[in-house]
Design a protein that fits this description.
With 163 residues, the chain is an alpha+beta fold. It contains 5 helices and 7 strands, in the order E-E-E-H-H-E-E-E-H-E-H-H.
Length: 163
């Protein structure tokens, strides 16, 4: 089963200084942190802030190529957690035929944000991530919940990196 998530914000892992995309279940307090590279986090941050760069970035190019080929992005899904690495897929269609593309979660999420496609995470991924977190994860769900709560009451839009 797929659980719909939204990008709640970006933060830095205080231990590694690596960016983290924070996904939050639209129907509960469940959060999923996904560690990403600096460039991918930047692409997502620009979209969160609705900053339009002077030239298309890679994810803008990908969106434009898919649209030019007649592919509609219907949803992206974080499909698996394998050996500590999240896997994702982009689901779309072209002329009524399904199109599925393997992707890194950061790229899939950046594309979803640019195409207004929903973001999902397989329920088993959330369960596996929770188990992995209990086995010595870097940041706990409680840390993330506390951070999200401190972003401001009643905010529906993704927040900014904490200072």
């Amino acid at each position: 089963m797929e659980v719909e998530m939204r990008v709640r914000g970006l933060m830095l892992d205080p231990t590694t200084n690596m960016p983290i995309i924070v996904l939050k279940d639209v129907n509960s307090d469940t959060v999923l942190p996904i560690w990403v590279g600096v460039f991918e986090a930047n692409a997502i941050a620009l979209e969160i802030e609705k900053v339009v760069p002077p030239r298309p970035m890679t994810h803008d190019l990908l969106r434009n190529v898919l649209l030019g080929l007649g592919v509609t992005v219907e949803r992206v899904v974080v499909t698996e957690l394998r050996d500590g690495t999240f896997l994702a897929a982009i689901f779309g269609s072209r002329d009524g035929e399904p199109v599925v593309l393997d992707a890194r979660p950061s790229d899939a999420i950046a594309l979803a944000m640019r195409t207004d496609a929903p973001i999902y995470v397989e329920e088993n991924v959330l369960l596996t991530a929770r188990i992995a977190e209990g086995a010595g994860g870097r940041i706990t769900s409680e840390d993330l919940r506390r951070w999200i709560e401190n972003m401001g009451e009643g905010e529906d839009e993704p927040g900014h990196e904490p200072s």
